[in-house]
Amino acid sequence: MTQDELAPRNKLDCFIGPGATTAELVLQFGAAVVVGVGCLLVFRETQPDVSPQKNVIVALIGLDMAGGIITNSTSAAKRWFHRPGQGFKEHMSFIAIHALQIATVAFQFVANEGEKWLYFGLVYFVLLVSAAIVLIVPSYLQRPTAMTLVATLIPASMSKQVPQTPGMEWFLPLLFIKLLVSHLVKETPFRPDVKAKQS
Q1: What is the DSSP letter of 182?
Q2: How far apart are CA 145 and CA 14, in angstroms?
Q3: How far apart are CA 83 and CA 14, in angstroms?
Q4: Contact, 128 vs 96, CB < 8 A?
Q5: Residue pLDDT, tens place only, 118-131
Q6: At a CB cut-off of 8 Å and minimum separation 6, what does 191 contact?
Q7: 0.85 cut: is pTM over it?
Q8: What's the CA gap between 141 and 146, in Å, rounded?
Q9: DSSP for residue 8
Q10: Which of 15, 164, 189, 193 is the right S-S partner for 75, CB 3.0 to 4.6 Å?
């Protein structure tokens, strides 16, 4: 794509990347809603009596995680987030702003009142270190490195040593996949094969 085609046409393009196809948009928004509702249903299995406000928060977090995984893995997003000028600092800044989601889970859903700050500090530290590792390895090792980290962090997040978040156990696996794999890994942004469609 040319530089003009890479330029965002509206605010939405800054989040999903310019030039997203209809199929990409359907996946990003349709599947994100479905998975977000699924996350809420899982939460309500163990926490059926919480306030409506908490249910809304859970649904929004699920929507954000699922939507982020799908959006960041599209070709449109890969072109946009890995365009020239996007380096270590820019990617780490994107990772860093997810302190908000981690803090929300920590202070709203950690079961033990005395472990809320521990959860926040531990998860945020591990996420930042893991992201830095993915960014500093050679490009050809980014994907296997990210996969290794995710394969390690997902079972580790289910350990009894990690502060418990009943009904929200899906949060950390989705967070790690969204940021370490979908966002950080630089990949070839393929375009639809227009000639194949026309033949």
Answers
A1: I
A2: 27
A3: 12
A4: yes
A5: 999 999 999 999 99
A6: 1, 75
A7: yes
A8: 8
A9: -
A10: 189
CB atoms within 10 A of CB 63: 19
The number of C-alpha atoms within 13 Å of 52 and in the hemisphere containing its C-beta is 0
CA 98 to CA 79: how far, in whole Å?
21
The contacts of residue 28 (CB under 8 Å, 6+ apart) are 16, 20, 67, 70, 71, 74
Amino acid occupying residue 124? Y
Nearest-CA neighbor of 183 among 146, 145, 128?
Answer: 146
For 35, residues 6+ apart whose C-beta sits below 8 A from its C-beta are 62, 63, 65, 66
* Cα Rg of the chain (Å, integer): 18
Tell me the pLDDT tens digit for each residue of 155-183: 999 999 999 999 999 999 999 999 999 99
SS (H, E, C) 64-95: HHHHHHHHHCCHHHHHHHCCCCCCHHHHHHHH
